[in-house]
Known about the structure:
The chain has helices spanning 15-23, 71-81, 96-101, 124-130; strands spanning 2-3, 8-10, 31-33, 44-50, 53-61, 66-67, 87-93, 103-104, 115-119. By secondary structure, the chain is α/β, with parallel strands linked by helices. The strands form 2 sheets. Strands 1, 2, 3, 4, 5, 7 and 9 form a 7-stranded mixed β-sheet that branches. The chain has a two-stranded parallel sheet with strand order 6-8.
Amino acid sequence: MTFRSNSYLIKGDSQAECERVIQHWPDTVDYWYPSSRSLTTIDCVALLEINGHDEFGLLQITRSKIHKIDPEYLDKISKWLSPHRPHRYIAVVPNKDICDEFRLDKADPDTVVPLYVAYVDDRFFEQLMNE
């Protein structure tokens, strides 16, 4: 999975403003982060390259091994993004150990959005500093 942030948008001081950004996604933006922590279930939306195809990642960053999501809210967002391109929810954890132990509080939530967990490569920050 490759993350790009060539063009980003930081906008949204409320839940309603954040939802408007998602509903009317600008074609020129590949990473969006709300101005405030006002969204349910996700922290940001990023355009990701996965297996050679572009997809939206509905990202939530967590350190928890046991995590809760709001499947109804994910389905709501899914209806807004579907016309644009495929998308998935990804819980992003800090390392492989947490990723291996990661579980959702409700083991199999009822949602149309594919659910994934990913971890930051242990060498990510080291590589970033050397660029």
